[in-house]
DNA sequence: CAAAATATTGAACATTGTTCAATAGAAAAG
DNA sequence: CTTTTCTATTGAACAATGTTCAATATTTTG
């Protein structure tokens, strides 16, 4: 069996990746099984393993794409905002909004690898880490451009704010804070930014 | 088969729970399988299902215990500290330190339920949510006692700081921030607290 | 056209969570 | 003490998972 002319290896990989993304958007990480994915693309489970080392490797690619969409989403959101505090808060809102609008894909980024293998956490590839670094840089530059933070401060503040933003988003989406309402995250973000960045406003 | 005199139902539940905690501490959530647990207590897998609805119900109890230990850990750490800013930062350090020292148990709290069941997120029981509320109250009262925050402010600030703390801890432990060093979390916490709470210092 | 290369398969294996009829042993009844 | 009832415990069985790999169908090459 073979369908050599159907797809180039490249196209096949993209077919697998895009369908994996679609399944995750609909049913979350838990819904992405080798068999379910194989069925949607009309291949057998084994084929997936010819393209990806294992399901985790596929997840890395999926998450990489998600990060890319997150970055694009943020950039698009802040593009029209003036270079002042409103752009900083717009960027922060964008993170929270993206997580809400792409809940299952966003959750998958932080979902632990399924394999137990009693300890090993596989290191993330270079290009993946580079994209993370790019995102941090976006935050850092926004702080510099809009609030005139000095370089070294901007770098550490960007990381801190990103982490806080992440925590706010996680706990709001999983209900730990015991509150509901879509406006809650934005109110918390406002509070964080105005207090933490008070010196620069 | 039966060992009626070996353990009361209560004792058997405690035996299961305590051994589940030990396995998680050693091998993480992924290492806690029904069969592995059954083996350590010299029972069969089926017995676990006579005591707990399913493995997720057991995880809820494990996480409940972890939260209890977290709370006790925090209270013990701040007990000797003066009622000023040092107690606030001591409490924040305690959270980060507990997560590091009890990494696998702490991770398990936020690990998603294994079952896919294409959407349902089982609500956490009342007593579990109560313990979470107690922890928030501890933070809230610390802010009031040490920094004289007014009531309504203290409540929302406690939740915000808790969320930020969580984000800082998550991203540091999973390496997203691309930095190492045990002192990193403490430095970030210092930065967060001194800036966010500047008005009250 | 035959031969070599290769893309694809799908059955098979190990491990999960989970169920439940069967049963071994204790408790109750006689 | 024997018989009956009850119940705690079992462990085989089922479905679903990730993963492997010899077999095979198809293309490419000689």
Q: Report the mean per-residue pLDDT of chain A as an integer.
A: 94
CATH level-3 fold name of the largest domain in chain A: Tetracycline Repressor, domain 2
Write the CATH architecture name of the largest domain in chain A: Orthogonal Bundle
Largest sheet of chain A: none
- N-to-C order of helices and strands of chain A: HHHHHHHHH
- Overall 3D shape of chain A: elongated
Q: Which protein chains make the most extensive interface, counting residues with beta carbons within 8 Å of the other chain's beta carbons?
A: A-B, 44 and 45 residues
Total DSSP helices of chain A? 9
CATH class category name of the largest domain in chain A: Mainly Alpha
Helix content of chain A: over 70%
Provide the β-strand percentage band of chain A.
under 5%
Rg calc of chain A: 20 Å
Q: What is the CATH superfamily label of the largest domain in chain A? A: Tetracycline Repressor, domain 2
Q: Extract low-pLDDT stretches of chain A.
A: none
Quantity of strands of chain A, as a count = 0
- Oligomeric state of the chains? homodimer
State the secondary-structure class of chain A.
mainly alpha
Total of domains of chain A: 2
Spatial separation of the terminal alpha carbons of chain A: 66 Å
């Amino acid at each position: 069996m073979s369908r050599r002319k159907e797809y180039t290896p490249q196209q096949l990989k993209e077919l697998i990746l895009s369908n994996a993304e679609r399944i995750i958007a609909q049913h979350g990480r838990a819904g992405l099984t080798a068999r379910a994915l194989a069925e949607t693309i009309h291949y057998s489970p084994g084929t997936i393993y010819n393209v990806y080392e294992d399901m985790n490797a596929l997840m890395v690619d999926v998450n990489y794409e998600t990060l890319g969409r997150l970055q694009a989403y943020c950039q698009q959101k802040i593009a029209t905002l003036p270079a002042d505090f409103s752009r900083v808060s717009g960027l922060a809102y964008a993170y929270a909004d993206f997580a809400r609008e792409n809940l299952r894909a966003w959750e998958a980024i932080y979902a632990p690898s399924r394999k137990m293998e009693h300890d090993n956490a596989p290191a993330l590839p270079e290009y993946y880490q580079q994209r993370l670094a790019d995102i941090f840089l976006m935050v850092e530059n926004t702080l510099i451009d809009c609030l005139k933070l000095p370089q070294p401060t901007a770098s550490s503040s960007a990381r801190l704010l990103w982490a806080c933003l992440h925590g706010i988003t996680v706990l709001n989406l999983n209900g730990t804070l015991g509150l509901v309402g879509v406006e809650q995250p934005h109110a918390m973000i406002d509070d964080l930014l105005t207090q933490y960045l008070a010196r620069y406003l």
